[in-house]
Amino acid sequence: MIQPIRIAEKLSAFSDHWNPRVIAELNGQHVKLAKFQGEFVWHDHANEDELFLVLKGRFRMEFRDGAVEVGEGEMIVVPRGVEHRPVAEQEVHVMLFEPASTRHTGDAVDDRTVTEYEWI
Amino acid sequence: MIQPIRIAEKLSAFSDHWNPRVIAELNGQHVKLAKFQGEFVWHDHANEDELFLVLKGRFRMEFRDGAVEVGEGEMIVVPRGVEHRPVAEQEVHVMLFEPASTRHTGDAVDDRTVTEYEWI
What we know:
The structure is a homodimer of 120-residue chains. Chain A has 1 helix and 8 strands, in the order βαβββββββ. Chain A has 120 residues and is mainly beta. Chain A has a single domain, classed as Jelly Rolls, CATH 2.60.120. In chain A, strands 2, 3, 4, 5, 6, 7 and 8 form a 7-stranded antiparallel β-sheet that branches. The radius of gyration of chain A is 14 Å and the shape is globular. At the A-B interface, β1, β6, β7 and β8 of A face β1, β6, β7 and β8 of B. β1 of chain A pairs antiparallel with β7 of chain B, so a sheet runs across the interface.
């Protein structure tokens, strides 16, 4: 029997920042959960649009020409090719929806770059 | 500037049941919002997996071999080809992720079938 996925339970399974976990795959897309705090690296994704849905807290999505705040119950779609940098003053819990091929730091690589995403 | 999408605001824009609205498109996928109440039609999608994320309330997803309850903060992925029928005793608010090609009643057609989804 297909079972529901409890998001709060999945979020409680990890506490590190900038390390998305996969909770579902469908149509070649991954649904991931992540916790952000601090400043991420500037990057873009040449071939992937990326959705960020805030489950708890808020963060600022910086673009080269400005920034927007994304709060709880809000989401933002960053189109492919658009440079962006998420910044969270305080911890924020985020759901990501993007192609399974997506590397979270895009073409940039830093010590937080993950190449194989863990399923939880 | 890319703007965040406020889910509560989008949900307040419609009140009818079983009539999903599109709020975003990325990577050939649609993000939709819907309100369910009552029993939907049995159907499957030959080529599309479908994700249901409960934003408010709860519903029962019936399969031919049983049923599961999906509550607030939970989600369920129905793989392509699996017959299913959502049933909501009380109104439930749901976010859907699925290919833009998906018809919500699958191969079944009833008087609720929508062929062109409205963007809100």
